[in-house]
């Protein structure tokens, strides 16, 4: 029924059962079962040829002939006679299907006559007994039938080659090949005029006729011949027939027909296999004659294999043939079952007398019978099937046959996608959306992203820019196909999402919003770094700073190593890129503009709030070297081949999770406010998470080691930072080596020049001056240090607030607006952004503060107004900071005009009491006490607060009594920027709940006003001291205006960090670090966009392949 159902569901071509199965279950199942079934047919052909000779020997053998004894019957003589029969049948098959059909018809008549003569003889033949032949014929007798009805298994029966007692398994294995004719019609499918109609009709009618005739023969013999006769006489059917000759002719006819059918059917199956090109080396047997497409070569090879099969024992052959037939029945029923349960609309067979229950029952019965008959043979057959399945799967290109697995996968995927909800953080994994323009240039980045996804979703996004949607649709369809071919070519596991849009940013937005399905959506977007070098070449007049030239670019820095280090992985990549890629025929898209790029980055980070990573330098990525095979290791052990040159030249995956912080104010309905320091815990931990995930990929784990690199500004913080980072890694179960660097060590030339005002060498000064040439704050600082600035600059320095430096490093270091107040005065003429962007950034910071620890605002309400007095000035200066937040790290734009020096960027309307002013930890004497030796200052004492919060009392009485009206609930006091403060200690949540399970313990911190900044002139002790620290004596000369890393604008910070990271990355394969987010509205100005990208270029210049990461969601947990 299953064969009939499949055969009537469409067009059937040559190949028989193989064709039916392969077009239903796919090339792997079809090819594997096709080869197994071919072997079974060949063995069955040999068995039938040997069986024909056995009939002759039993009648005419020299030793055991029943009629005469003239035919030599030794093993090799029998093999010769079987060979002659096989040659004759093969010749008939080579002569063509016409002769075969005529011969088959004649043999069919003889076979039917001989078969029906058996029950006829039982009716007409009189009872007799022959002691010579060992026959007792009783005629039709109920007693005889009853004695033969029940089984009585013995051993030593005539013709039996079994050494022990017969079993049901032995009998079944020997007799089952007689049912192999069920596939006789299907095997001739290529020669049938209407196979879809002829196969089910012929198969079912043939089965019915066979069942009736077999039943009549069995009952006739069981009712007329005693059990002892069956046991002693092997030729009993012929001896109890009215004509022994007709039985002998029937034996010749059935054996000859089976040999003919076996040769031609097996050859047709092999021809179909070869033409489908599933197994390497079989294509030659796909040949067919011009006239009737006769498989000449396949017939010849079938004859040769059958000739070898005849050397085996006939009973062993029968057992193996039984296994192959049962396997074919199982797979056929399985195919019908899957087609039915898959509910494919196009599965509408004309044969209706089946259902999934009959198919399932047939498959189950076939599988169970295989192991019932012979477990060893069944296991060998299954093992052979699996091996062939794997060979075809890994060596055969995909076929467009539409196998049923696609329908089943679709059904199950749809079912479980509907059940898939937002993934729990415990099972978070990076689902990557990678925007790609040129797949050839991004080949290694695509391979890297494929490794990074860790079994999650991977989508390649591409935007076709066109105003003509109708005209771009054909191109989109072509590219969909070429991108799919590219995925197969590069052996990655990804999907493709192509959008058509008039502008690239709109297309990217659409892809980001629509990518994925149901609960499977990307959670991190990766973009290539903007190509500023091409922008410099295409627009040479644009105001774009050049990167510092004394450090080599990533490509240059790695090319030398690459020349002396050629690995198999690099050779494979090179050969692939040298060949033609499927996507080479795609229409080339133009480069994205800087404004569009930054606008897209803002949309992803600030509006869609998705995790974003920017990749730079991945064309120079050193992919992990392939693992040497056992054979290569053996050759290396024998010193025949050296495999050491195939190890990677790079050794490390480096993680640089840089802290970023910004200060905001929070208030409630009462007149209370507090300054809160926001940290980038999400980004910090995402960098650790992605590095750990990449290191779990076997090839990367074998080739590289994982390092976590962090930095502080002063040596006294190194061990504290190391302990806190190690504690965080322990809580996150990340095994990595921790390296802690301190900026004020004296080894960073850019730090010494910028922060401490020391003289650097020519290359360092050239780098600094070329990088900061447009930074007016730097020009002013240099002017003050050189003593060439007017007294206004000195007055600006003298007006710095007491709390200008970062807070004590015993807790989370914070920086309020006062930290930058004096620096802003020196950057008075710097480029300003539109004031409207301030409200947008405040909105962004408001969203960021939504993840602060619970109870923070309630804790603020518990404070009295007296303790809040230090925040009123923050409110006013915070407004100024919000207005001018864009000036940090900005240079003069094309439309800027120099401002008069008399204008004060940091004007404060409230009255000021005379006091000393401090900048970067260095105290300047006030107007009333500016005397030599008064350069020392002190920090106010710390006051411990609950939950790790800290505050400081203000010593300014005039400021203490001042109150102001409350501002907005959240107000930004400083920009998000890098900080060299120690990482806050890790806090593990003690309650199971929807909130984060791990966080920084000091994430919210009250900003202290009077906590002095630490410079190289003032180092705090490792442990808190009850007395105030004593700075170095003497007031530094004006040419040494000391700063602090946290005080610096981002461009200067990037320059210093770049030198640090480059020095530590000589053996780094890939690097992960923090991506500074652009201020909302940056993309509205081309100059601001270029400036932002230029700042990132300063950070990344000369580094190995680097992935800049910014997170908007929690990705780690400590929950079970």
Automatic annotation (TrEMBL):
Taxonomy, superkingdom: Eukaryota
Gene Ontology biological process terms in this record: cell volume homeostasis; chloride ion homeostasis; potassium ion homeostasis; vacuolar transmembrane transport
UniProt KW keywords: Membrane, Transmembrane, Transmembrane helix, Transport
Alphabetized InterPro entries for the sequence: AA-permease/SLC12A_dom, SLC12_C, SLC12A_fam
Membrane topology, as annotated: Multi-pass membrane protein
The keyword Transmembrane is annotated on this UniProt entry: yes
Domain Amino acid permease/ SLC12A: 2-429
GO molecular function: potassium:chloride symporter activity
Residue span(s) of domain SLC12A transporter C-terminal: 444-529
Chain segments annotated as transmembrane: 32-59, 79-100, 107-125, 171-192, 204-225, 245-265, 317-341, 353-372, 377-396
GO cellular-component term (any): vacuolar membrane
One Pfam family per UniProt: AA_permease
Positions with biased composition (Polar residues): 547-559, 808-817, 979-992
N-terminal signal peptide: none
Positions of region (Disordered): 541-573, 798-817, 863-1028
Compartment(s) of residence: Membrane
Family of the protein in this entry: Belongs to the SLC12A transporter family.
Protein name: Amino acid permease/ SLC12A domain-containing protein
């Amino acid at each position: 029924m299953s064969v009939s159902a499949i055969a009537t569901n469409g067009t059937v071509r040559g190949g028989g059962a193989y064709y039916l199965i392969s077009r239903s279950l796919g090339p792997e199942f079809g090819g594997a079962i096709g080869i197994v079934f071919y072997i079974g047919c060949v063995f069955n052909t040999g068995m039938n040829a040997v069986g024909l000779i056995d009939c002759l020997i039993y009648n005419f053998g020299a030793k055991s002939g029943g009629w005469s004894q003239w035919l030599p019957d030794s093993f090799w003589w029998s093999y010769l006679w079987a060979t002659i029969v096989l040659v004759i049948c093969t010749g008939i098959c080579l002569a063509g299907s016409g002769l075969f059909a005529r011969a088959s018809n004649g043999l069919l008549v003889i076979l039917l006559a001989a078969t029906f003569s058996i029950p006829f003889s039982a009716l007409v033949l009189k009872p007799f007994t022959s002691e010579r032949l060992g026959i007792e014929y009783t005629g039709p007798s109920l007693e005889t039938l009853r004695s033969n009805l029940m089984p009585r298994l013995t051993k030593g029966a005539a013709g039996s080659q079994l050494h022990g007692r017969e079993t049901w398994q032995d009998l079944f294995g020997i007799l089952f090949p007689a049912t192999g004719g069920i596939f006789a019609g299907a095997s001739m499918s290529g020669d049938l005029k209407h196979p879809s109609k002829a196969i089910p009709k012929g198969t079912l009618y043939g089965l019915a006729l066979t069942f009736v005739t077999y039943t009549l023969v069995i009952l006739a013999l069981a009712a007329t011949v005693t059990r002892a006769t069956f046991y002693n006489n092997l030729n009993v059917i012929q001896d109890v027939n009215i004509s022994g000759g007709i039985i002998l002719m029937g034996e010749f006819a059935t054996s000859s027909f089976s040999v003919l059918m076996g040769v031609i059917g097996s050859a047709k199956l092999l021809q179909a296999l070869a033409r489908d090109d599933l197994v390497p080396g079989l294509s030659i047997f796909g040949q067919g004659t011009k006239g009737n497409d006769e498989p000449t070569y396949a017939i010849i090879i079938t004859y040769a294999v059958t000739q070898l099969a005849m050397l085996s024992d006939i009973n062993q052959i029968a057992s193996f043939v039984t296994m192959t037939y049962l396997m074919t029945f199982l797979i056929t029923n399985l195919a019908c079952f899957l087609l039915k349960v898959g509910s494919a609309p196009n599965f509408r067979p004309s044969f209706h007398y089946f259902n999934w229950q009959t198919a399932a029952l047939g498959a189950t019965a076939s599988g169970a019978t295989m192991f019932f008959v012979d477990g060893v043979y069944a296991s060998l057959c299954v093992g052979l099937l699996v091996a062939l399945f794997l060979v075809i799967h890994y060596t055969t290109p995909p076929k467009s046959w539409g196998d049923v697995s696609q329908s089943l996968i679709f059904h199950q995927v749809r079912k479980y996608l509907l059940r898939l909800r937002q993934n729990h953080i415990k099972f978070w994994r990076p689902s990557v959306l990678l925007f790609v323009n040129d797949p050839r240039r991004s080949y290694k980045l695509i391979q890297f992203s494929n490794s990074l996804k860790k079994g999650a979703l991977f989508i390649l996004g591409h935007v076709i820019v066109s105003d003509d949607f109708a005209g771009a649709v054909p191109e989109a369809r072509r590219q969909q196909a070429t991108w799919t071919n590219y995925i197969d070519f590069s052996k990655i596991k990804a999907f493709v999402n192509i959008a058509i849009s008039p502008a690239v940013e709109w297309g990217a937005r659409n892809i980001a919003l629509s990518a994925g399905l149901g609960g499977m959506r990307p959670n991190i977007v990766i973009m290539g770094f903007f190509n500023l070098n091409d922008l410099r070449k295409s627009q040479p007049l644009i105001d774009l700073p050049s990167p510092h030239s004394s450090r080599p670019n990533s490509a240059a820095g790695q090319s030398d190593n690459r020349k002396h280090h050629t690995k198999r992985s690099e050779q494979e990549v090179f050969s692939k890129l040298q060949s033609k890629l499927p996507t080479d025929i795609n229409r080339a898209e133009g480069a994205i503009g800087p404004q569009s790029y930054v606008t897209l980055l803002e949309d992803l980070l600030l509006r869609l709030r998705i995790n974003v990573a920017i990749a730079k330098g991945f064309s120079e990525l050193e992919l992990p070297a392939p693992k040497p095979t056992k054979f290569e290791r053996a050759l290396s052990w024998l010193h025949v081949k050296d495999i050491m040159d195939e190890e990677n030249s790079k050794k490390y995956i480096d993680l640089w999770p840089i802290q970023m912080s910004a200060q905001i104010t929070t208030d409630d309905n009462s007149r209370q406010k507090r300054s809160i320091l926001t940290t980038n815990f999400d980004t910090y931990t995402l960098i650790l998470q992605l590095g750990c995930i990449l290191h779990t990929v076997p090839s990367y784990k074998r080739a590289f080691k994982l390092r976590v690199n962090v930095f502080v500004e002063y040596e006294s913080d190194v061990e504290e930072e190391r302990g806190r980072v190690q504690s965080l890694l322990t809580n996150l179960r990340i095994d990595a080596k921790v390296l802690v660097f301190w900026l004020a060590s004296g080894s960073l030339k850019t730090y010494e020049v910028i922060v401490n005002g020391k003289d650097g060498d020519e290359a360092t000064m050239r780098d600094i001056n070329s990088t900061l040439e447009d930074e007016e704050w730097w020009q002013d600082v240099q002017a003050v240090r050189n003593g060439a600035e007017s007294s206004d600059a000195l007055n600006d320095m003298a007006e710095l607030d007491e709390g200008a430096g970062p807070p004590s490093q015993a807790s989370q270091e914070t920086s309020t607006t006062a930290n930058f107040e004096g620096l802003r005065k020196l950057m008075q003429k710097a480029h300003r952004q539109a004031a409207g962007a301030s409200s947008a950034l405040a909105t962004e910071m408001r969203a960021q503060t939504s993840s602060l620890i619970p109870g923070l605002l309630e804790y603020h309400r518990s404070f009295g107004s007296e303790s809040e007095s230090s925040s009123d000035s923050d409110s006013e200066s915070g407004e100024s900071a919000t207005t001018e937040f864009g000036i940090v790290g900005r240079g003069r734009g094309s439309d800027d005009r120099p401002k008069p020096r008399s204008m004060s960027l940091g004007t404060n309307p409230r009255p000021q009491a005379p006091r000393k002013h401090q900048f970067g930890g260095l105290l300047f004497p006030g107007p009333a006490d500016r005397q030599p030796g008064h350069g020392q200052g002190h920090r106010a004492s710390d006051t411990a607060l609950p939950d790790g919060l800290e505050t400081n009392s203000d010593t300014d009485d005039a400021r203490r009594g001042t109150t102001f009206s409350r501002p907005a609930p959240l107000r930004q006091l400083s920009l998000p920027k890098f900080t060299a403060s120690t990482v806050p200690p890790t806090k593990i949540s003690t309650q199971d709940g929807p909130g984060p399970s791990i966080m920084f313990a000091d994430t919210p911190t009250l900003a202290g006003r009077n906590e002095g900044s630490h410079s190289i002139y003032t180092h705090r002790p490792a442990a808190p001291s009850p007395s105030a620290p004593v700075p170095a004596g003497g007031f530094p000369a004006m040419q040494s205006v000391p700063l602090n890393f946290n005080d610096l604008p981002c461009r200067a910070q990037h320059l210093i960090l770049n030198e640090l990271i480059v020095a530590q990355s000589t053996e780094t394969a890939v690097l992960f670090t923090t991506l500074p987010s652009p201020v909302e509205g940056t993309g509205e100005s081309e100059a601001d966009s270029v400036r932002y990208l230029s700042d990132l270029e300063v950070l990344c210049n000369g580094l190995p392949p680097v992935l800049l990461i910014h997170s908007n969601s929690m990705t780690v947990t400590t929950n079970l």
